[in-house]
Design the sequence.
């Protein structure tokens, strides 16, 4: 994996020490997060959609209802900006000004393109396996009718940057002497015990892929 | 608190049973989440920014560097779309098509306006107290120079809707007999033990507002 080019839109004029154009950094963030936010222009005005996604190779795949106005607009080649942000902590500084958050984020700019044929099916299965690795094989795959009801679009991971902040607050030198507690409160995503669908007709233990999904995140008692 | 009007942009054509226009629902989501995503049009193309925010009364306040091109554009009255999404769970259905996520989200459409004067200072303190309630009083407030280096914009919570999905998967009737584990894996945001800034010159216990912040979220062992 290599370096992504720096463009007008992905160059960071401020806090450029937080920027990364390494594909490995970008892919790691894209593969950890569970939702993205897609911005595009609809009838001249901005729209933002939170949605699941899957990275497959060097593209981000999104899917939505073929009946929805927004996905139809995207499938027609809309310019989009996709953001993925993992929140890692609250950064408590000695001054209001230097309060911050620790995070890892990626933004991808590009033109969405409609995905059809075999790649469309592969992307749809990819969504499930991206979310819950190992699950796609155990469920009913999408029917032809369901594929027709779904729009899949892809955005190339080409004009793209990652931004990462970590570590303690960075205060003004004069403020370090203030008698203020400063530091980080780490934020961690966890899962609690799975809730079986009450409509399951037979008792089935939660499969290994549920445990594996939970194993990637913290365990939380509710 | 009342009902927000339904507009062309906030009417939900699909899955409208998930929609809410109750101010109380909208405010509760805005007051729980820690970041928003702001979309706007910059030089004809979409941009999306993840950022902290504060709701004060019926406005969302954002802040950024006065040196940044995006916040300058917003302060000039840009149309924006602001999304706030809380992810509550993975929804595992019997078919690929019905996999979903449980979430609570809000989208606000509107025109950003620059905030100046006393309200600007109040918003800046609001950001800290919104993030870590009770903290603003114990830190050094923003100086005049810091206020000048910061742009604060507000977006009215007027053209706005909430969208909520909860509960088990909704499968096709024919699929309920499949021998597939189905249900929800709840996602929960937690904190782990605070990490004091190694540059604290004296030993100070983490203050009550740190414990209060953590009390609102799950506790996670790392």
Sequence:
């Amino acid at each position: 994996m290599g370096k992504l080019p720096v463009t007008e839109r992905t160059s960071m004029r401020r806090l450029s020490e937080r920027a990364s154009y390494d594909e490995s950094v970008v892919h790691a963030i894209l593969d950890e997060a569970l939702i993205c936010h897609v911005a595009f222009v609809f009838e001249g005005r901005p729209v933002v959609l939170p949605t699941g996604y899957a990275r497959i190779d060097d593209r981000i795949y999104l899917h939505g209802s073929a009946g929805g106005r927004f996905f139809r607009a995207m499938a027609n080649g809309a310019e989009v900006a996709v953001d993925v942000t993992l929140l890692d902590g609250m950064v408590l500084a000695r001054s209001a000004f230097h309060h911050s958050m620790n995070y890892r984020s990626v933004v991808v700019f590009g033109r969405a393109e409609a995905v059809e044929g075999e790649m469309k099916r592969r992307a749809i299965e990819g969504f499930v396996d991206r979310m819950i690795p190992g699950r796609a094989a155990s469920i009913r795959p999408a029917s032809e009718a369901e594929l027709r009801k779904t729009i899949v679009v892809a955005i190339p991971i080409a004009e793209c940057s990652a931004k990462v902040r970590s570590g303690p607050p960075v205060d003004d030198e004069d403020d370090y002497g203030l008698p203020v507690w400063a530091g980080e409160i780490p934020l961690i995503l966890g899962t609690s015990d799975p809730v079986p669908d009450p409509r399951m007709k037979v008792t089935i233990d939660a499969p290994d892929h549920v445990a594996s999904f939970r194993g990637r995140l913290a365990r939380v008692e509710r």
Notes: Chain A touches chain B through 103 residues (CB under 8 Å). The helical segments of chain A are 23-32, 69-75, 117-131, 144-148, 208-215. Chain A has two domains: 16-186, 188-222. The first strand of chain A starts at residue 19 and ends at 20.
